[in-house]
Design a protein that fits this description.
The protein is mainly alpha-helical and 148 residues long. The protein is built from 5 helices and no strands. It is globular and about 40 Å long.
Length: 148
């Protein structure tokens, strides 16, 4: 689970960097392998440190919380975008809208609800850190907002 999330996180870090939400250093692509090697290296070290410093069950629960929260947001975004931006080209098709996104978001939130309070606090701390990073760096450098 940690390794898969690390790889997904490296790709997300690459995309965030490319969009100007974190420093451009993270979006460097390796000349030979054409992979985001800097983001992979930083996230790999952070993943190893977390796995070594904290109980693995706690790390796994926080990762699960984050993945479930992301899935719930994606399910909700499907509904919002279908209503607010029906003209957008769809890269993938979701069957039985709105039933599948509502069930997906509902089950994700139900699983989150069952996690211990400490995991909620850990996730809240990461969310605060992310908002502070966005407010301190991303807001001024975002390519999507025309900042850079």
């Amino acid at each position: 689970v940690l390794f898969a999330n690390m790889l997904a996180g490296a790709r997300i870090g690459f995309a965030l960097s490319r969009d100007g939400l974190i420093p451009g250093w993270f979006s460097a692509v390796h000349a030979r392998y054409r992979t985001p090697h800097r983001a992979t290296l930083v996230l790999g070290v952070a993943t190893a440190a977390a796995a070594g410093l904290f109980p693995l069950t706690t790390v796994a629960e926080v990762v699960n919380f984050g993945m479930l929260a992301a899935f719930a947001v994606i399910c909700a975004a499907i509904l919002v975008l279908r209503r607010k931006r029906p003209e957008l080209k769809r890269s993938f098709r979701v069957p039985f809208v709105p039933l599948v996104p509502v069930i997906g978001a509902g089950f994700s939130l139900w699983l989150i609800y069952g996690l211990p309070v400490g995991v909620w606090l850990g996730f809240a701390a990461w969310m605060v850190a992310g908002v502070l990073l966005y407010l301190g760096y991303g807001l001024r450098h975002s390519r999507l907002a025309g900042g850079a």
